[in-house]
Design a protein that fits this description.
Distance between the termini: 93 Å
Strand order of the largest sheet: 1-2-7-6
Helix content: under 10%
Mean pLDDT: 79
Family: Belongs to the small heat shock protein (HSP20) family.
Oligomer: single chain
Pfam families: HSP20
Protein name: Hsp20/alpha crystallin family protein
């Protein structure tokens, strides 16, 4: 049987009054590259997927989410450690991504955002041409020897 501790309630009240983090909370996230796209995963437990808002303005990706807690009439809380909160994360994407094809999914409290690499940013081979005695030579990927090119 739990006993009533007035100091615990006083500590919780003081923490609520003096908590300077009352603004938007940060969400823990991971970001990695997998082939030709980046994957961002962020922990958002207890979030209604309908409250998740993701937008791109230029190269700035903004993720917002809100956790609301149910409160019914006549409810008497015994303990309430989970807070209603707004979560916010912003990332500068840089120039190497395709912002038109960003997609997102939410499952089991984790938001996954897939950010494709733009075609211009993908690695590619550049052919090198040289001129030798009126003949244009071009290096091919399959051999190291220059091959003549018809003009």
């Amino acid at each position: 049987m739990a006993t009533y501790d007035p100091f615990r309630d006083l500590d919780r009240l003081a923490a609520g009054i003096f908590d300077v983090r009352r603004g938007p909370r940060r969400m823990p996230m991971d970001l990695y590259r997998d082939g030709d796209h980046y994957v961002l995963t962020a922990d958002l437990p207890g979030i209604d997927p309908g409250s998740v808002d993701i937008d791109v303005d230029g190269q700035l990706l903004t993720i917002r989410a809100e956790r609301t807690l149910p409160s019914g009439e006549g409810v008497k809380w015994i303990t309430r450690e989970r807070e209603a909160a707004t979560f916010l994360r912003q990332l500068n994407l840089g120039q190497g991504v395709d912002t038109d094809r960003i997609s997102a999914a939410y499952a089991h409290g984790v938001l996954s955002v897939t950010i494709p690499v733009s075609e211009k940013a993908k690695p590619r081979k550049i052919s090198v041409s040289t001129e030798r005695e009126g003949e244009v030579l071009r290096a091919h990927e399959s051999t190291d020897e220059p091959q003549p090119v018809e003009q």
